[in-house]
Design goal:
heterodimer, A: about 90 residues, 2 strands, about 10% strand, B: about 475 residues, alpha/beta, Rossmann fold, 2 domains, seven-stranded mixed beta sheet, four-stranded parallel beta sheet
Chain lengths: ~90, ~475
């Protein structure tokens, strides 16, 4: 098995952020799991399929690559509710 | 002497925004509150948006006056020029006449301040003193910082930490315009502190930055949140692009336009140029309107409009949307995460209405066309803009084959001077195409065969 840090220093352009980032970011951004787009971005640079299979369980891969479950508006509404609770607790 | 570009006089600038919700053949379905399942009301959004913007979000009034105070700020760089791309036409040997609306001339370098200015103004007159937002590499953050600076509002920008550390230029733009730009996760919010406790070296993410900005807006006095894409009022503020372009095409002597195109991410720059022409199309004009997207994310071009679960575990309510099927988990050898939920509902409905004809392009073709553009027209386009340029090149070649003098209009949404890393990857051969395989998608779509089908309404009537 290769070390999980093996590709960390490789750099790629991230279309989501609009800037360059190292592979380490792509494999940890999703609460320590890989980014949803890690395969599409890295498939032709490294053996990304093998990398994922070596270092993550099937469940972890499924969780990491699953599509988002909320629209932007849904996300905003959820975050408003959370923030309201924080405000209430502080008061 | 031939004209290369047309400027409008300042008093010729459009005085109203166009709200396409007034003319949608089928009204949009109201968004539902995920907690209650009921349609979202103004009070649901009031903690993060001022009521005057919420009113615009749900308005069906066709024309909305651009306030004088907004106009005075827009006039700093607007009206933007409409150029004729003679050099590109010559390079392609096309009889088509190619025009592009240059939105790269704004101080932040893109179309984004068109809505940032309006949002800052409406916040200000609502009594808001401070706006919080998130930004990835800083495009939206810099546009909003610029706008807040012009209206004397404080601006707090949560910038994804990795970009904050590695890409200082847009951060410095924000600082120069007086914004407080900090790396996210930060110690300034509960959301940020929680992440930092567990991961002190977290490089951040857009999700974390959004959480921080919204928490900031809800918990800080006189503060609201601002979003630069997706929402209806954002699209409306951008329509000044297309309204100006119509007047400028007339000054060029064009009586009609055949093809209108722009790239689609969240949809705001495309909508800004295209919606005024969609109105003409609704009223009978023969215009081909083409939103462009990458083949790697073929939401508009491949995904059907269906009812589907929002998650792979099939636990969420069924959502009517363009989807590749909720079990679409790619095999490790194939691309993941291609299903994109962020398409603006207005754009989605116009596709269903048959008013838009989306196309997808591979990234290598896009970069090749971006380089062709830079070597003919001079300016270096943003990587996103190159998708729309690909439509132009394809249509110009088609016009040559057909021997037709078509008029093509493009939204040149921004320059790529802050995005040269992508060009570096292209020139060094690091970029490769990855279109979604047909059989992969067909397999995935089997998962939604048994689910109910949403009403596909065109002109308010079901499509047979």
């Amino acid at each position: 098995m290769t070390a999980i840090e093996e590709h960390d220093a490789l750099i790629i352009y991230c279309p989501q952020l609009g800037g360059e980032i190292p592979f380490r970011y792509c494999r940890t951004v999703n609460e320590d799991l890989p980014c949803r787009k890690i395969i599409i971005c890295w498939e032709f640079r490294i053996e990304i399929g093998n990398f994922l299979n070596e270092h993550y369980s099937f469940d972890q891969i499924q969780r990491a690559l699953a599509p988002p479950t909320k629209t932007r508006l849904d996300t905003i509404l959820d975050l408003i509710e959370k923030a309201k609770k924080i405000k209430e607790e502080e008061e | 002497m031939k004209e290369f570009k047309v400027f409008l006089k300042e008093d010729e600038i459009p005085k109203q925004w166009y709200n396409i919700q007034a003319d949608l053949p089928t009204p949009l379905q109201p968004p539902l509150n995920p907690g209650t399942g009921k349609p979202i009301g103004p009070q649901d959004l009031a903690p993060v948006f001022p009521m005057n913007l919420i009113e615009q979000e749900v308005s069906t009034q066709r024309w909305i006056d651009i306030p004088q105070e907004v106009m005075e700020k827009l006039l700093i760089w607007r009206p933007t020029p409409l150029h004729r791309a003679y050099a590109l036409e010559k390079a392609l040997g096309t009889p088509a006449r190619i025009y592009y609306k240059n939105e790269g001339v704004s101080p932040p370098g893109s179309h984004k301040p068109n809505t940032a200015i309006a949002q800052a103004y409406y916040n200000k007159i609502f009594g808001i003193k401070r706006i919080a937002t998130e930004t990835g590499a800083g495009q939206w953050g810099s546009a909003l910082s610029f706008a807040c600076c012009l209206f004397g509002l404080e601006c707090k920008v949560y910038m994804v930490r990795i970009s904050y550390d590695q890409k200082p230029y847009r951060r410095l733009m924000m600082n120069t315009w007086g914004a407080n730009c900090i790396p996210s996760p930060s110690k300034d919010t509960n959301a940020g502190r929680k992440i930092l406790e567990q991961h002190p070296d977290s490089p951040g993410s857009l999700g974390i930055a959004i959480s921080e900005a919204i928490e900031d807006a809800v918990t800080t006095k006189d503060t609201r949140y601002s979003l630069g894409s997706v929402l209806n009022h954002v699209m409306m503020h951008q329509t000044i692009i297309g309204l100006e372009a119509k007047k400028q095409l007339e000054k060029f002597g064009e009586k009609k336009v055949d093809i209108v195109t722009g790239c689609v991410g969240g949809g705001s720059n495309f909508s800004g140029l295209a919606f005024p022409f969609v109105l003409d199309k609704i009223n009978g004009a023969k215009i081909t309107i083409i939103p462009a997207e990458p083949t790697s994310c073929p939401t508009m071009t491949k995904a059907p409009f269906v009812y589907d679960f929002g998650d792979t575990a099939a636990t969420t309510p069924l959502l009517a949307m363009h989807s590749l099927g909720h079990t679409f988990i790619p095999a490790p050898i194939h691309a993941g995460g291609l299903r994109y939920h962020g398409l603006a509902p207005l754009v989605s409905q116009l596709i269903i209405e048959g008013l838009l004809e989306p196309r997808a392009y591979n990234q290598l073709e896009c970069y090749a066309n971006a380089v062709l553009w830079a070597r003919t027209e001079g300016a270096i386009p943003a990587p996103e803009t190159s998708h729309a340029i690909s439509v132009v090149v394809e249509e110009a070649k088609k016009a040559k084959e057909e021997g037709k003098e078509k008029v093509i209009l493009l939204n040149w949404s921004g320059h790529g001077l802050m995005d040269l890393g992508g060009y570096d990857s292209y020139f060094s051969g690091k970029l490769i195409d990855y279109p979604l395989p047909e059989d992969e998608m067909k397999k995935s779509l089997k998962s939604i065969e048994g689910l109910p089908k949403p009403a596909m309404l065109r002109k308010g009537k079901p499509i047979k």
